[in-house]
Amino acid sequence: MIKIFLFITLIPVFANASISSDSLKQLHADAEKGVAEAQYRLGMLYFMGNGVVQDNEEGMRWLHKAAEGGDPIYQYLLSFQYEIGMYVTRDSVESLRWHKKAAEGGNIYAQYSLAEKYESGQGIQQDYYEAFKWAGWPTFQVGSRQVVLKILT
Q1: Residue 80: pLDDT over 60
Q2: N or C: which end of the chain has fewer CB within 10 A?
């Protein structure tokens, strides 16, 4: 699955890369100013304990800030944290809430995944209308035609 691959491939980047104290200070300043990318990166540093004391709660706090800024990429990444339960207690309700926000914000991966969830009833009440609706948006980008075909047959 693409989201697991993307997330797992990012872990070594944050785990092995060292960050200088000046870069960390700048990253923290940018995060405090509301720069979503900086908030996300700072959260990941806290998860990994890279340049800071490892702290999952602080990592989630920064990921929430990035997602609350409205960027569907960070909303999707936060939903994924809750879905798999990495660094936080698994929470399907919270995962779905952020998943929907990301899909509504235009994240094609979230749209495709949400269509699959509605089609299969995975963590949500099965609803073919919603599955069709969400599958219809990213049809050509990520191959959600497969979901539509399941619905129509």
Answers
A1: yes
A2: C
